Task: inverse folding
């Protein structure tokens, strides 16, 4: 988390910092081109370049100090800030003293060095603090927005889960009462039919009780539950109900919300099969596209 925060703030800092840096350099180059070559302009360009290098080095020093303070490592950040200052001065010496004057033969300008140094240090310090403030505020705003989105998604998920549990609570008593009534009636008229219905009912209860304790289940377990559920209705409705389940083995291990399919199957029976004298067929199909499970593609009653 800390590394992600530092990376994000650093990215935003340079998104703001580099355009300003380029504008300063381009403006100075334009003035030099318009006015002509002069030692003052050359020296000013050089100072701007290596003071911006200072700012880059000190920026990472500032970031690391914040990290060490957050981790409560006091002596390390002191050493780090000293190292950053030494590295900054080394860049200043190598670029301004050795490279530009020895290699590039740029003249050394001393008449205004003190004034320019004070001016550039002040400008760079103010620019650095301002841009870092903007970058960090931008990051904090985006982070707060993402946090609100995560909370909203979590609330939506919780609401759907509560609605599903409420629906399950409404289904179970109704289904249990009707099934027990059908079992009792079957034992009076057809013992074999009643025994088969009771066996399927026990199988359904064993599967459903295990799933109701969990928020998620596998496709395989959900289909086992639906199979027991449909077998009970097949005994109750006889030839009026037929069903077909087409679930590829490659998606049987995937996770779905517990008891997700049963409400849809119950609606298919209630509104598609029972009103018809000849009944119909319940078809449950699922498919997998590319590398992810797309869900149940069809649950319908064919009448």
Result:
């Amino acid at each position: 988390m800390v590394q992600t925060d530092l990376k994000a703030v650093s990215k935003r800092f340079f998104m703001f910092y580099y355009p300003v840096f380029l504008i300063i350099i381009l403006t100075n180059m334009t003035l030099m081109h318009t006015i002509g070559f002069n030692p003052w302009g050359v020296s000013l360009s050089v100072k701007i370049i290596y003071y911006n290098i200072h700012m880059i080095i000190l920026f990472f020093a500032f970031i690391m100090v914040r990290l060490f303070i957050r981790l409560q490592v006091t002596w390390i950040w002191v050493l780090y800030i000293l190292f950053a200052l030494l590295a900054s001065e080394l860049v200043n010496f190598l670029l301004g003293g050795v490279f530009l004057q020895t290699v590039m033969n740029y003249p050394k300008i001393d008449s205004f060095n003190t004034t320019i140094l004070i001016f550039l240090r002040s400008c760079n310090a103010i620019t650095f603090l301002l841009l870092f403030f903007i970058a960090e505020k931008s990051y904090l705003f985006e982070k707060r927005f993402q946090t609100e989105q995560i909370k909203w998604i979590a609330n939506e998920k919780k609401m759907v889960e509560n609605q599903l549990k409420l629906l399950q609570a409404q289904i179970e008593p109704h289904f249990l009462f009707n099934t027990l009534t059908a079992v009792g009636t079957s034992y009076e008229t057809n013992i074999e039919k009643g025994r088969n219905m009771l066996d399927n009912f026990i199988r359904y209860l064993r599967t459903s009780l295990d799933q109701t304790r969990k928020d998620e289940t596998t496709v395989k377990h959900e289909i086992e539950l639906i199979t027991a559920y449909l077998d009970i209705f097949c005994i109750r409705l006889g030839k009026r109900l037929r069903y077909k389940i087409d679930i590829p083995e490659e998606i049987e291990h995937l996770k779905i919300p517990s008891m997700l399919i049963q409400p849809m199957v119950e609606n298919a029976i209630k509104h598609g099969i029972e009103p018809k004298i000849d009944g119909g067929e319940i078809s449950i199909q699922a498919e997998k596209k590319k590398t992810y499970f797309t869900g149940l593609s069809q649950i319908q009653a064919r009448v």
In short: Residues 190-302 form one domain.
